[in-house]
Write a structure and sequence with these properties.
The chain has ten helices and no strands. It is an all-alpha fold. The N and C termini lie far apart (54 Å).
Length: 217
């Protein structure tokens, strides 16, 4: 079995099992945290409206912090959007999704995909440097923050190298790219990358819970 066969076969299967099982475990655990019945009298009965309002308002920085976190906020949106485009609209990725889901969608030109991948890498490197050098961010950061950022950067870098056939045999570059993606899959449920699945549910829960108490989330 070659390295590419391993990456395409057992490693991919195992990483997907860990990704799906771990994510479900985290999501179910989060839901069960709210299973206890609240016996207090609600101050506001529109839990759905409060939850949706919290999702909308928490997606923008609070006015009092806006000037201090503007770079962090907008760069965060920028790299998430660029990553979304790179992952979902690159033709080889679409073929993979089609093999799993049974359907595909139109892709974007390779030039656009390379540009969005490069933008994502540049922003993540800038955020990584800022996190390591900023006195407050450095203080509140832990290993998870750095590991999560690196595990997103590496698949992008290896993907570009594999596409450009730079740095070695194509089969080896592709295998390394796949293994880096699979490492991200394995880390996803247990690190801060899980925020991709928990951000909106947690904001909704906070909004509905605080709204019940008559407090703005």
């Amino acid at each position: 079995m070659t390295l590419l066969d391993f990456a395409r076969g057992p490693a991919l299967q195992l990483s997907l099992v860990i990704l799906i099982a771990g994510s479900l475990w985290r999501l179910v655990g989060t839901i069960l945290l709210n299973a206890r019945k609240d016996l207090s009298r609600p101050r506001h009965k529109s839990a759905l409206a409060d939850g949706m309002k919290a999702i909308a308002t928490r997606s923008l920085p609070a006015h009092v912090f806006e000037k201090r976190i503007r770079f962090q906020h907008f760069s965060g949106y920028a790299w998430h959007i660029a990553l979304f485009v790179s992952v979902l609209f690159f033709a080889p990725h679409i073929l993979f999704f089609e093999s799993v889901l049974g359907f595909g969608w139109p892709g974007l030109p390779n030039g656009i995909i390379l540009a969005t991948a490069a933008i994502t890498i540049a922003i993540l490197v800038a955020l990584l440097i800022r996190r390591a050098s900023h006195p407050v961010q450095r203080l509140i950061s832990n290993a998870d923050d750095y590991i999560s950022i690196v595990l997103v950067i590496v698949p992008l870098v290896t993907g570009i190298l594999a596409f450009a056939h730079v740095g070695g045999r194509y089969e080896t570059l592709l295998a390394v790219h796949l293994l880096s993606v699979e490492a991200m899959f394995v880390w996803f449920p247990f690190g801060k990358l899980m925020h991709a699945a928990l951000t909106f549910p947690s904001r909704f829960q906070a909004g509905s819970s605080f709204g019940r108490k008559g407090v703005r989330a």
